[in-house]
Amino acid sequence: MTPHGQLRPLHPEADDGAGTRSRRTTTAGPDPGPVRSITRGEAEDPETGPGSTRPAARKRQHTPRRANRVFVIGSDGKPLMPCTVRRARQLIDAGRVRRRDYRPYTIHLKDRCTGDGRTAVQPVEVRCRPGPRHTGIAVVATLDDHDRVLYQEEIDHRTDISRRLIQRKAHRRRRRATKWFRKPRFDNRRRPAGWLPPSIESVVSNQQHRIERLAQRSGASTACIQTGKFDTHKILDPSVSGKGYQQGPLYQRHLREYIATQYDHRCVYCGKGDWEDATRFNLDHIVPRSAGGATNIRNLVWSCQPCNQRKGDRPVREFLRENPERINAVLRQRPVPLAAAGQYAAICKRLVRRLEDSGLETSETTGADTAHARSAAGIVKTHANDAACCRSSGEIDSLRTPTTLKAAGHGRRKQIKSLPVGPYLAWRHQKPTTRRATPCPGHARHPNHVHRIRTGDTVRILTTDGWRKGEAQVEASRQRVHVRTSQARYSTSKATHIRRIATANGYRESN
Q1: Residue ranges covered by each domain of the chain
Q2: Rounded distance between C-alpha atoms, residue 360 and residue 352, angstroms
Q3: Are 286 and 301 in contact (CB under 8 A)?
């Protein structure tokens, strides 16, 4: 009898949609059998059948959908080898599972552990391809010089942190303006050791949290991180070398003089020269500073003051929509986005350091090695597939359909609601004539949970057909919880009709 969870070498195409072996397997792979036509319904030949409306679609190779493996924890609390979805259902139906966890899905067995002498565990490694916007993570087991992928996921990081910080700054200033006296504070503005900008801190924390959790569920003791650095100067100018790094285009020149020379001392919006009259000329940002535009030579143009004031913070295409021939002249030096390239090195360096401090054995690899392994295996480039190819020396089998996680944060932290119109103090002294269904602006807001359930939690709700599992959406003003399941949407306000089975942990899972 094959021990539970032990990986067996399979044919690359002998894995069905749930990650299990096909019943009809030959030396050349599984027998596909007759294929049902989607349009007509009769059996047809996969190569020459009339089911497809396009001849090219009949011979197209489709990547089979393979679900992620289910993580397994033994009766002694130590992780076992992940099993297939079908095997997990069999164990649950047989009553051998005492508990289930989510994100990622994990079952806890009653009667199997690593010390019973009949359960084998292979070495497992967590591989990560970090990024400032998207991150791919894979759990890989090495068996007979083959890298068997057990689990894959992709994380979409937050991009609203800068905007949220600006909003928080405005709310704090408004609250402080209402106080008549505030104690002076001088010693609370020091940044602690290892401080990172909030946007980068969010990315590193998400990656560290997911890697440590997957290592705990799978029993992995090592992690491989793809690291790298970007030469931003060479990205902008591929011919730069030697002293060119120190002597750039502004060497011994003034910024205004350089920009004016680039545009022949003429306004890029109206074509007026700065020598014609006494009109003042300014440096204008192609991407406005309010939209995150940087003050560098690739984001600055020579503009007269009237055009600069009329443009304001509008995009260039909107400002010049009636004069399209000017758009190319403005966008010929379109700024190259280098924020992600500059953040990548900081993210990788801090992630490796934090994983080492947590006790996880960490190794590093480069993007060139990942690209070589991916091209040798003929794998499509995605974030999750790059993570599976990190430091891969053999064949890569059983790629999975990655689970997508969206970092959603933990909700707003406003202490009061924003005012619709009018100043704060003037509104406070106005007594409402009728009772409002929702809390009045300026009053303390409702807690962001109902019956200790928050938005994004995985819950079970009692319906006429029994208990249904779904994702909760909290309506705190009415003290109701809306649950979206695979069948329908339900709502309840009773604490006895809803149970929480997994917290959101700042992520929203799709797939």
Answers
A1: 25-121, 134-167+197-230+340-407, 251-331, 431-510
A2: 10
A3: yes
What is residue 98's three-state secondary structure? strand
Q: 471 or 53, which is more confident?
A: 471
Cα–Cα distance measured from residue 387 to residue 125, given in angstroms and rounded to the nearest whole number: 11
**The domains spanning 134-167+197-230+340-407 and 431-510 adopt the same CATH topology:** no
Q: Is 249 exposed, middle or buried (0-12, 13-18, 19+ CB in 10 A)?
A: exposed
Largest CA distance in the chain: 93
Give residue 53's pLDDT band: very low, low, confident or very high (50, 70, 90): very low
The DSSP code for 474 is: E
SS3 218: helix
First-residue to last-residue Cα distance in the chain = 34
SS3 10: coil
Question: CA–CA distance from 23 to each of 1, 36, 149, 344 (Å)?
Answer: 18, 19, 22, 46
pTM for this entry: 0.69
Does residue 14 register a pLDDT over 50?
A: no
What is 251-331's CATH number? Answer: 1.10.30
Q: Tens digits of per-residue pLDDT, 355-374? A: 999 999 999 999 999 999 99
Instruction: Tell me how many degrees the CA angle 80-137-337 measures, rounded to the nearest 5.
Output: 170
Rounded to whole angstroms, the Cα distance separating 134 from 131 reads 5
For 134-167+197-230+340-407, the fitting CATH number among 3.30.70, 3.90.320, 3.30.450, 3.30.420 is 3.30.420
pLDDT tens digits for range 157-211: 998 888 888 888 887 787 777 766 667 666 667 788 889 999 999 999 999 999 9
Q: How many angstroms separate the Cα of 409 from the Cα of each of 155, 159, 459, 471, 508?
A: 13, 11, 19, 16, 9
The SS3 assignment for 273 reads strand
Radius of gyration of the chain (CA): 30
What are the tens digits of pLDDT across the range 95-110? 999 989 888 999 999 9
Please name the CATH architecture into which domain 431-510 falls.
Roll (2.30)
Q: Are residues 500 and 492 in contact, defined by beta-carbon separation less than 8 angstroms? A: no
Q: Supply 174's token pair.
A: 């408004």
Angle at alpha carbon of residue 394, lines to 389 and 395, rounded to 5°:
75
DSSP class of residue 133 equals: S
Q: Given the structure tokens 């960490």, which residue do they identify?
A: 362
3-state secondary structure of 225: strand
Containing 89, the helix (H) or strand (E) segment is helix 85-93
The answer to whether 199 and 407 are in contact (CB under 8 A) is: no
Distant-in-sequence contacts of 21-25, Cβ < 8 A, 24+ apart: none
More confident residue, 60 or 320: 320
CA distance 213 to 106: 11
What is the average pLDDT score of the chain? Answer: 78
